[in-house]
């Protein structure tokens, strides 16, 4: 990965408190990043359609809450997984319920992670640490692949 690259993060989340906490924590990342936020499923789909038309930069990672207004997060997930461009983007799925874990098992676990939404601030910090680790793993993997290709 180009060291001047600004890591693009798409957060699809409707809870203002979670958005605030996530954006505050992601600012602490040791890599330059830009956080794009969509607050419902339809807004997420609109953003992703603009990515496909090259009107927005392809995210380096997508963090998706499954419980969204207007269009359900599962529909957004299906859009991502059915598109040849978007399917390559690492995806973290966040949900308040464990029942959705079977939903992603059919997809590449190297590109996807399921995290149960925390119910306390301390647990939220652990969630963000897992997300940071996931991002760091993907950066290292991308840099390794670029070195092998050169």
In short:
This protein has 150 residues and is an alpha/beta fold. It has one domain: Rossmann fold (3-Layer(aba) Sandwich), CATH 3.40.50.2300. Helices cover 44% and strands 18% of the residues.
Strand order of the largest sheet: 2-1-3-4-5
Q: Would you count the extended β strands for me?
A: 5
The number of helical runs is: 5
Helix percent reads 40-55%
The proportion of strand residues reads 15-25%
Outline the structure in words.
The chain has 150 residues and is of the alpha/beta class. The protein has one domain: Response regulator (Rossmann fold). The protein is 44% helix and 18% strand. It contains 5 helices and 5 strands; from the N terminus they run βαβαβαβαβα. Strands 2-1-3-4-5 form a 5-stranded parallel beta sheet, with helices on both faces. Helix 1 crosses helix 5 and helix 2 runs parallel beside helix 3. The longest helix is centred in the C-terminal third of the chain and has 29 residues. The chain is globular and about 40 Å long. The mean pLDDT is 78.
